[in-house]
Structure to design on (1101 residues):
């Protein structure tokens, strides 16, 4: 017993979990502050949340090139985790910036919103820094449960209810698969530590072909692919994205996706490297399926939130291509791509946040007729984000796709790259249609309800700067992404 | 050579102009003046470079800055004789474009901003000597054009704009894959991962070469456009505003040919040599098919659009003949075509502004009605059909002479094609200028501003027709270097000079 | 080792057979005279009052959830108390953090009025 305590004490390394600790403390503080504030006063909560994210970013950066391990190999704040933490914090920050006025407009100025975003960001951080399947699972749950609540937060809107319930039911289901997969892998290797599983499998090559290992790998992939919104586990995405409050959708499309990629990459590349041929062929097919389903279905959408939901499926497909390539270019490309996607997608959603009327009935293609001329700044911003989503240089989207496809070609997946590029060509059509409506159609309205709230405008400006910076001079961030992989 | 970064400023000036136009979007007059000033300064810069002498390797100017170190992509701009002529053409036509859209009513600031942005993109394409940088500009120049067609176009503008964008972008995406493939191949062979054109020229592509070449060519041929891939062009031209048509015909199409000469041929000489008969075939098919299409068009602008495809057939034939004469002729013809076709498009827009229609059936009797307009129109129409002494003739005769040297049959067929050109041009001129004038209100003649815009075009059309050596002088060295680098091209035709 | 489960399996089989058998037998040989009252659910000779699908006040769920949360706390406290001395200050601090987090939740719940019935 004494030894046990000492062992536990030795392994305590708060530096390894400091970012999420800070975030959780702030989250609890905001929770308490909220209950003592009159209802509807949420601006201070959003400001404190921004401060929380900034502090966390500073704390998290301590782990750059200064890896911290702790808690018996359960967590590691290495470069990989730090890079992803920055992505999560960015996603959360942009989301919170655009939220305050939006929530007031929609009539739900709920203080709990901000702590929930912070908690789910903390969950995402555990997923990225978890080096043990259980830690990763814990992070996933914290992330998901917060998001279930956020998705259904507009209690009196049927669509929001649907989003919350659907996300919860399907999410819980997929978590079951994940847990079962973890159990099977534990059964094989006798440990849930990712690195130890890798060691065990390389020491016992016979176990690699074992059905239990493969089944564990498959079941676990289902859990993560669900969060990534890869086909055929994407069915929830459009409904949830459309029904959830727009900033929450924005966050969901960037944060959890990146978190699931982080966990998937750590587990597959470190733990299941022995099964690489198996998971490569699995993801190869899924990447193609995801890209095609996402892009082709997006063509038929007229609601912009729904269209961006399908487009986010397609983007998950592009990112999977990098994982299939499984070389330094492709994998660091995923890190880069997630950051780029965070900028461009959250930017696009921030424009939607400002452009919507109460109830957001007008976020359709028709509703954007002539928007570009009536609201020049938002129009240009949206155009930049859409061009980036298309992958047109000089934007972040181009640089990201470039790295990922270069990785695929380098590993010899020429056809995968060609299919990916053709899919980009398909995607041009529906992104372009938004631009067509914004600029080529005559305005039906004068968009007088659009008021430029400081928070959302700041997040748009940050996103534009990010998109162009990553597009024109991607070298620095790419260097960091390269340093961040294992 | 000076230390002043001329090439970079050529790119930054229009970008700065774009930014200023967007900033002062509430003051259209200021924007217009700014745009004209920018284009004039650019033209002056280009004229200065035009008077310089190249160094031994054919470079007028070279600038090289670090960009994405990790990938080996550098911000390399280089100007040889070929790109010099293209840059001069761009700067010149852009001034004209501003002049002919002087009275832009609809969203003027945005319009001028896009014109300048496009100028930056096109100049970047002509100057970039790094494949990634080139691709970046290649895509950047599409976006302003897309907006120009989509916002300021007439008729089915949305359809035409989207078609234009999808066609050209789909082509260039495959080029992107080819660029990545070439880059990785080179990196694997030499250990030096680089996008520099000069380095990549020495890559041994092996079995991949035809595929990479095909990827590049697909991107370029859509832009040229060569006949089966040309369908976006008439639509785009039909609806585009005057300045858009001018830029489209005068500059955007040239980027395709330029890309072939600068990238596809030197990078993949073996495959290029093997593809020459196919290129010649496509060029001839385009020449005849487009001429035929032009003949039956009822819309003047569409007719000129098809004539443009037909002329590019001649240019492509010059490329396929691949000897000194034909290549110099083809490049010269690019200049001439930019001037004459651009001028015709501008004239048609002026016509439409007066008459409200471009249908030949509803037009006629312009010679009586608007003599100054008619003089200009006749002049450029005759130049376009290749009247000796005017611009197109000098280019065409060089192409034909070069083609006859290596493949007399191709040359003979092409000359027949030019007769077709006479047919459709003369029909258009006859109906428009001397046909029966339909009843209606009078059509005013050209304004002073319009004459001012057209006069420089007349001047250079005459210059190119009478003394093309001024421009050819800049081409001798680059063409010689190109043929040395792509020796198989010459060998493909039996080693004739 | 599996042998020791045999009696249990036998028992389950017998139990299942008995239950299924009774139902099947009563269906087969029983004499039936259905009437409206008899077919009603929970037939016990009394007339029905309202529907069985009644909504319960949401407060019951909230109380139930709160109960579980604080119940877990108690469950966790017991083993901790047993080894408290050996864990020393470290264990004390850890448990303090744990209870503090619960306290935050408690304050939140209280202020939100989840504990008020009316």
């Amino acid at each position: 017993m004494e030894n046990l305590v000492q062992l536990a004490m030795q392994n305590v390394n708060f530096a390894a979990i400091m970012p999420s600790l800070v975030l959780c403390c702030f989250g609890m503080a905001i929770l308490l502050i909220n209950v003592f504030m009159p209802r509807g006063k949420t601006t201070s909560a959003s400001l404190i949340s921004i401060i929380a994210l900034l502090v966390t970013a500073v704390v998290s950066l301590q782990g750059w090139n200064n890896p911290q391990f702790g808690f018996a190999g359960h967590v590691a704040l290495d470069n990989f985790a730090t890079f992803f933490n920055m992505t999560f914090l960015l996603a959360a920050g942009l989301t919170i910036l655009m939220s305050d006025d939006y929530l007031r407009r929609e009539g739900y100025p709920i203080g709990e919103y901000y702590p929930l975003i912070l908690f789910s960001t903390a969950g995402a951080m555990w997923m990225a820094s978890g080096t043990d399947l259980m830690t990763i699972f814990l992070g996933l749950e914290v992330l998901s449960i917060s998001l279930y609540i956020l998705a259904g937060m507009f209690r009196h809107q049927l669509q929001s209810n649907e989003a919350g319930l659907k996300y919860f039911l399907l999410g819980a289901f997929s978590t079951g698969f994940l847990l079962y997969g973890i159990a099977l892998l534990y059964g094989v290797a006798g440990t849930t530590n990712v690195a130890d599983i890798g060691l065990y499998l390389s020491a016992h090559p016979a176990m690699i072909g074992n059905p239990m290992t493969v089944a564990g790998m498959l079941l676990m992939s289902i859990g993560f692919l669900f969060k990534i919104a890869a086909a055929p586990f994407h069915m929830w995405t459009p409904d949830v994205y459309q029904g959830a409050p727009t900033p929450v959708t924005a966050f969901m499309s960037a944060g959890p996706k990146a978190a699931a990629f982080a966990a998937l990459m750590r587990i597959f590349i470190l733990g299941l490297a022995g099964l690489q041929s198996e998971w490569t062929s699995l993801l190869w097919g899924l990447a193609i399926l995801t890209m095609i389903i996402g892009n082709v279905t997006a063509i038929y959408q007229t609601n912009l939130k729904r269209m961006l939901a399908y487009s986010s499926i397609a983007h998950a497909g592009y990112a999977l291509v990098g994982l299939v390539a499984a070389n330094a270019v492709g994998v660091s490309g995923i890190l880069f791509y997630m950051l780029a996607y965070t900028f461009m997608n959250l930017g696009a959603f921030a424009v939607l946040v400002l452009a919507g009327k109460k109830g957001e009935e007008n976020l359709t293609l028709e509703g954007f007729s002539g928007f570009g001329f009536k609201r020049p700044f938002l129009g240009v911003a949206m155009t930049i984000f859409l061009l980036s989503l298309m992958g047109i240089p000089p934007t972040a989207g181009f640089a990201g796709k470039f790295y990922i496809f270069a990785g695929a070609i380098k590993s010899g997946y020429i056809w995968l790259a060609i299919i990916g590029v053709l899919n980009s060509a398909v995607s041009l059509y529906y992104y372009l249609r938004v631009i067509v409506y914004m600029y080529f159609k005559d305005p039906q309205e004068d968009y007088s309800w659009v008021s430029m709230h400081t928070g959302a405008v700041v997040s748009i400006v940050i996103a534009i700067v990010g998109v162009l910076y990553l597009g024109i001079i991607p070298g620095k961030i790419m260097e960091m992404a390269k340093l961040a992989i294992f | 050579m000076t230390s002043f970064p001329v090439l970079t400023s050529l790119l930054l000036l229009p970008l700065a102009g774009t930014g200023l136009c967007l900033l002062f979007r509430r003051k259209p007059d200021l924007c217009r003046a700014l745009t004209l000033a920018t284009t004039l300064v650019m033209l002056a810069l280009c004229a200065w470079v035009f008077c310089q002498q190249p160094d031994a390797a054919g470079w007028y100017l070279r600038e090289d800055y670090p960009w994405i170190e990790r990938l080996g992509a550098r911000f390399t701009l280089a100007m040889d004789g070929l790109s010099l002529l293209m840059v001069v053409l761009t700067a010149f036509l852009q001034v004209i474009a501003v002049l002919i859209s002087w009275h832009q009513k609809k969203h003027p600031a945005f319009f001028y901003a896009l014109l300048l942005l496009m100028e930056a993109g096109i100049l970047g394409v002509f100057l970039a000597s790094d494949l990634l940088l080139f691709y970046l500009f290649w895509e950047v120049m599409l976006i302003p054009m897309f907006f120009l067609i989509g916002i300021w176009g007439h008729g089915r503008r949305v359809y035409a704009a989207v078609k234009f964008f999808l066609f050209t972008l789909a082509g260039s995406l495959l080029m992107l894959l080819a660029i990545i493939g070439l880059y990785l191949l080179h990196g694997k062979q030499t250990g030096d991962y680089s996008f520099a054109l000069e380095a990549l020229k020495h890559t041994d592509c092996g079995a991949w070469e035809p595929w990479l070449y095909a990827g590049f060519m697909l991107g370029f041929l859509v832009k040229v456009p060569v006949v089966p891939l040309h369908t976006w062009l008439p639509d785009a031209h039909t609806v585009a505003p005057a300045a858009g048509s001018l830029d489209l015909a005068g500059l955007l199409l040239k980027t395709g040919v330029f890309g072939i000469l600068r990238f596809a041929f030197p990078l993949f000489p073996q495959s290029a040599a093997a593809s020459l008969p196919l290129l010649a075939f496509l060029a001839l098919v385009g020449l005849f098919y487009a001429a035929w299409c032009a003949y039956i068009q009822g819309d003047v602008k569409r007719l000129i659009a098809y004539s443009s495809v037909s002329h590019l057939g001649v240019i492509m034939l010059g490329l396929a003949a691949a000897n000194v004469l034909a290549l110099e002729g083809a490049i010269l013809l690019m200049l001439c075509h930019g001037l004459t076709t651009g001028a015709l498009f501008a004239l048609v827009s002026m016509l439409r502004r007066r008459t409200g229609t471009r249908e030949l059936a509803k037009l006629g009797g312009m010679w009586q009605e608007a003599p100054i307009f008619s003089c200009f129109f006749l002049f450029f129409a005759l130049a376009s059909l290749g009247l000796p002494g005017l611009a197109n003739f000098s280019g065409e005769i060089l192409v034909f002479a070069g083609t006859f040297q290596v493949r007399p049959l191709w040359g003979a067929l092409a000359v027949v094609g030019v007769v077709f050109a006479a047919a459709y041009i003369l029909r258009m001129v006859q109906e428009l200028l001397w046909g029966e004038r339909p009843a209606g209100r009078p059509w005013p003649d050209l304004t002073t501003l319009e004459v001012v815009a057209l006069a420089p075009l007349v001047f250079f059309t005459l210059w190119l027709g009478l003394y093309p050596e001024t421009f050819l002088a800049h081409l001798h060295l680059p063409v010689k270097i190109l043929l040395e680098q792509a020796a198989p091209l010459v060998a493909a035709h039996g080693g004739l000079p | 080792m599996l042998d020791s489960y045999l009696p249990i399996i036998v028992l389950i089989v017998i139990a299942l057979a008995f239950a299924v058998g009774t139902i099947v037998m009563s269906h087969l040989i029983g004499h039936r005279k259905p009437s409206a009252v008899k077919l009603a659910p929970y037939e016990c000779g009394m007339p029905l009052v309202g529907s069985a699908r009644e909504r319960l006040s949401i407060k019951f769920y909230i109380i139930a959830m709160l109960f579980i949360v604080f119940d877990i706390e108690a469950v966790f406290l017991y083993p901790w108390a047993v080894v408290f001395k050996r864990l020393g200050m470290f264990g004390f601090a850890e448990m303090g953090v744990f209870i503090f987090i619960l306290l935050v939740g408690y304050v939140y719940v209280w202020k939100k009025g989840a504990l008020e019935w009316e």
